Automatic annotation (TrEMBL):
This is Serine incorporator. It is a multi-pass membrane protein. Keywords: Membrane, Transmembrane, Transmembrane helix. Pfam families: Serinc. It comes from Triticum turgidum subsp. durum (Durum wheat).
Length: 491
């Protein structure tokens, strides 16, 4: 993208903004303000007497390059006052609305200039759509593809067994999706710059990649059953890796949001919002726990559900106690959000119990109501796709190096290799959801992630999420104390 083209586009867009108001800043630090009729105005209005006049940038509507204007002081060698883009007539900074408008303008101009080339930001949505279509295809094969699957020579060993045909169909489609994203992972890993040819491969060549996806989806249906069963065993570990990456990403986002709101810059401005969100999350967590006791532990015979819910309540209290400790001082926002998250995981774990269980009455009612069951299934599929997408673009969640490097203009916006790796693990994850983490059980129609194996996986994920959060807020203190101890010993 040529700087001149971007500048001209930005100034043309600026003409739609009000003529008055604070100036803008172009690359290089030169501020510019344009009038309503396109007449250039002073970048910074001088003080009294006109002794000093700040440099001015004259920009024509269709100009390719912005050039500094001659000084209008009238004297040779007159000083030039330094300018800051944030200043206006009476001093002070831009208001929030002006900043938002200018940022939208810059992004719009950049998008207009980059749209002729590879667009990795738009490509990620296409990959998410491919992943969604694959999920729907796996569900269709599981619930409605038994007659077609029974005719395949490779699946005749199932002898028409419904659970066998459904599970093998899901695993074969999952294997095809895994192969597609794993090929994309191998071909885009370690991509750093936008001018790399692999950026074009990641963001373009859609007819070729669609054909590749269709071919890799069909190939597993010609594979022997022992190979598919082996993939099903490996998929347990891949799905587990996906859950670990996902919970690290969620925990990292919550701690980042908490640190951002508690920073000196935002502490006073966001104090009321943080307080309201903290109260809402705590009330929501307690309310969710009470409802789970009422719905899923109606009698003392439901000992396992009582154990799950009680442990969740204890984890919420422990996270809160550790966060507000005088040595940690993490506040109430992060444990409140984590409390909502682990309560949701506990609820989903109990919901994953077989619907024949007497303590899972709400799930049985949902099964009898077709529309509610279908809605729950659709929401679950969308959540799987959204979780995979949001985790895939967070390539920093598993970085172990704390060194921060400044990003350059030609850096890629997110890690392509990590993005495809997460989708490959997500392919294994949705396979486990559709077969209930057990290839030898029959799944009901319009159900997802049901079975005792699913329940224990969710419970383990919940406990691991709480432990991960506690470690993330305690680890800096532990490492700092250890470093201080080492320094004292050396001295």
């Amino acid at each position: 993208m040529k700087p001149g083209t971007a500048t001209a586009a930005l100034v043309r867009w600026r003409s739609f903004l009000p003529s008055s108001g604070p100036p803008m800043t172009l690359d290089g630090g030169l501020p510019v303000t344009t009038g309503g009729a396109g007449v250039p105005m002073a970048a910074e209005r001088g003080g009294g007497g006109g002794a000093r006049v700040a440099p001015e940038v004259v920009v024509e509507r269709d100009a390719a390059v912005a050039t500094p204007a001659m000084e209008r002081d009238g004297g040779v060698g007159a000083g030039v006052a330094p300018t800051e883009a944030a200043e206006s007539d009476g001093g002070g900074g831009r208001n929030c609305g002006e900043q938002c408008v200018i940022r939208v303008a810059e992004e719009w101009c950049c998008a207009r200039c980059v749209c002729v080339g590879p667009n990795p930001m738009m490509a990620r949505y296409v990959y998410a759509l491919i992943f969604l279509v694959t999920n729907l295809l796996a569900w269709t094969v599981r619930d409605y593809g038994h007659s077609a699957l029974g005719e395949l020579r490779r699946l005749r060993g199932c002898q028409g067994a419904r659970y066998c045909l459904g599970a093998e169909g899901v695993l074969r489609i999952s294997l095809g999706c895994f192969l597609f994203f794993f090929v994309m992972f191998l071909s885009t890993m370690k991509t750093r710059k936008v001018h790399d040819c692999r950026n074009s491969w990641h963001s373009e060549w859609w007819p070729v990649k669609i054909a590749l996806w269709m071919a890799l989806t069909a190939v597993p249906f010609f594979a022997p059953s022992p190979l598919i069963q082996l993939y099903g065993k490996v998929a347990h570990f891949g799905a587990g890796a996906f859950l670990v990456i996902q919970l690290i990403s969620v925990t990292r986002f919550i701690t980042w949001l908490n640190d951002c709101c508690r920073s000196e810059l935002n502490l006073k401005r966001c104090h009321m919002q943080v307080l309201v969100v903290s109260i809402v999350t705590y009330v929501g967590s307690i309310l969710g726990i009470v409802l789970m006791y009422v719905w899923y532990a109606p009698t003392s015979a439901c000992k396992l559900n009582i154990l799950f819910i009680t442990v969740t309540l204890a984890l919420v209290q422990i996270m809160t106690f550790v966060s507000v400790n005088s040595k940690v001082k993490a506040g109430y926002l992060a444990p409140g959000l984590m409390g909502i998250y682990i309560v949701f995981l506990c609820w989903s774990a109990i919901r994953s119990e077989p619907h024949t269980e007497m303590c899972n009455r709400k799930a049985a009612v949902a099964t009898s109501a077709d529309w509610l069951n279908i809605a729950s299934f659709v929401i679950a599929v969308i959540v799987v796709v959204a979780a995979t997408f949001s985790t895939g673009i967070d390539s920093k969640c598993i970085q172990f190096k704390s060194a921060e490097t400044e990003s350059e203009d030609d850096d890629i916006p997110y890690g392509f290799g990590f993005f495809h790796f997460v989708f490959a693990m997500g392919a294994m994850y949705f396979a486990m959801l559709f077969i209930g983490w057990n290839a030898h059980q029959e799944m009901e129609k319009w159900t997802i992630d049901v079975g005792w194996a699913s329940t224990w996986v969710r419970v383990g994920n919940e406990w691991l999420a709480a432990i991960t959060y506690i470690w993330m807020i305690v680890a800096p203190i532990v490492w700092k104390r250890r470093q201080v101890g080492s320094s004292s010993a050396c001295a």
